[in-house]
What does this fold into?
Amino acid sequence: QVQLVESGGGLVQPGGSLRLSCAASGRAFRLEAMAWFRQAPGQAREFVSYINWGPGTTYYADSVRGRFTISRDNAKNTTYLQMNSLKVGDTAVYYCAATERPGWGSEDDFGSWGQGTQVTVSS
It folds into this structure.
């Protein structure tokens, strides 16, 4: 199992930026992908973005494409989510997740989750 620690959340004005980070650690693991999800109060958890660890390919939800950028630092086993042009609707708890399953295909394959970091965009 992979342990994940998130950081970087906070309060920001609309149009502002935040950079989230998520560091993975453990005795022995192989990262296949890391992803970001978010959950607003009273709403279901929502996919935001993922990055495949080997090739570095990325994907974004339509709601954040063009505003958010996911990246990785292989040496540090860390993923980052750069969030620009933030909107009130981006307010949520952001969760980092990791999978060790080759050929992963869904949220169910992500077995490791961080505890979440709060992002609040004021109006």
User: Anything to note?
Assistant: The radius of gyration is 14 Å. DSSP finds no helices and eleven strands in the chain.
